[in-house]
Every structure is written in C-alpha cells, then in structure tokens.
Amino acid sequence: MERLQKVMAQRGVASRRKSEELITSGRVKVNGEVVKELGTKVSDKDIIEVDNVLVEKEDKEYYLLYKPRGCISSTKDDKNRITVVDLINTNKRIFPIGRLDYDTTGVLLLTNDGDFANIIMHPNNKIEKVYLAKIEGILKKEDINQLKEGIALEEKTVKANKVKLKKYDLEKNTSLVEITIQEGLNHQVKRMFSALGYSVMKLTRKRVGIFTLEGLHSKEYRKLTPKEVQIIYSYKED
Questions:
Q1: What is the pLDDT of residue 77?
Q2: Which of 51, 77, 86, 101 is catalytic?
C-alpha cells in the first residue's frame, strides 16, 4: 500500500504536489468513490480515476527540450497556443517539470514520472539552474553583490549562487549576465533584476543540474539516457 499521490505521480498523472492538489479539489476517485484525504493509501488492485479518466500504469519517458520563444510550459492551453508537450512526439501523458515563461527559452525537462519531477523541483536537493539574461542597463558591481547577498521578493528572500557579467554595451546600454540560482519561484530571475531597477530583455536557461543545451537547437529535444535518470534519482530516494 502506498500513498495515493505517490502512486499518481508514479503513473505519470503529475508531480506529487500537483497530484495532492487534484486530490484535495475532489477530482480523484478510488474504486468509484471521490477521495479528498491526502493520507489515503492504495494498492495495485485499486482503480484510480482523475476527472473520470482511468489512470493506468505507463512506461516512463524522460525528455530534454530546447524550449523556443512563444511556447507555453503546460500540457494544454485554453487559448489554443502551442505548448511544450505539442513539440514532443509521444503518446504518453508527459508534463513539463516546472515552467519557463512564454518568452523565455532554454532547458526544459518533461516526463511522465512524477517522482523524477519531484526530485528536480524539491528545494532540498539544491539543483542549480543557470540563466543567461540580457538586461537593459549596465549591471553595477554593488548590484552583483546584492544579487548574491539576497533579494527580498514577496514570498521570500532569494539569492544567486553565482553572478557573472559576461559583457556590456555602453552605446546600447545593455548587459549580458549569467546568473545561477537554486530556487524556482515564478519569474524569479526577472523579478530579481527588476527589484534592482533592471528590465530583462531576453532570457535563456542554459542548464538545469547536469542537463545543458549541448547538441540541440531551438525546438529540438532528446530522450534522457538511463544513466542521466539514475544520477537524478541518486539525489534523493524515498
């Protein structure tokens, strides 16, 4: 017997956290009965449904996508815009691990393995995310220090592990900055720069943990290797 949300994650419904939201909102049935208790445990013999759709076991799939601009980091969109899932040729119910903004490009992982997704997103695992930001303005040394010391956002104070001014253009009044973070708050990098008075003109995520854009062009993707999946699972075992 295992917790319902864990089984849902294992079967590729969504991450464990999202599965918990589905349960508490009354969208999950076990053996025909709506279940809202997060402590509910199920076995392989129990019939699980989400929105009246049977949740079956699926082979696990893992993808690394070079997300392009103008693409939604979601499984579907009510405005019929292209989603990152639309770019992957699979019949599995994959979902993106975390989000990149509509106009942000770069590394995005997708899977139908909720446990894998949870490991990537859990802050305790301190998986680095490296971004390359083109900002309006010339980044000052004191602001580099402030990014490292901490920026107070609405939810919490966050800080960059590393900040490197790659180059700047005095004539155009722009800077190219590489910034490394571990948290994954919504619009975090843009909000950190905004708090210091800089506007992000262009943003690319270059790396998430061991995963980079090497060998990929915009819109291209590849499957993760078994070794890569094993490395991520080595971060945390339940």
A1: 87
A2: 101
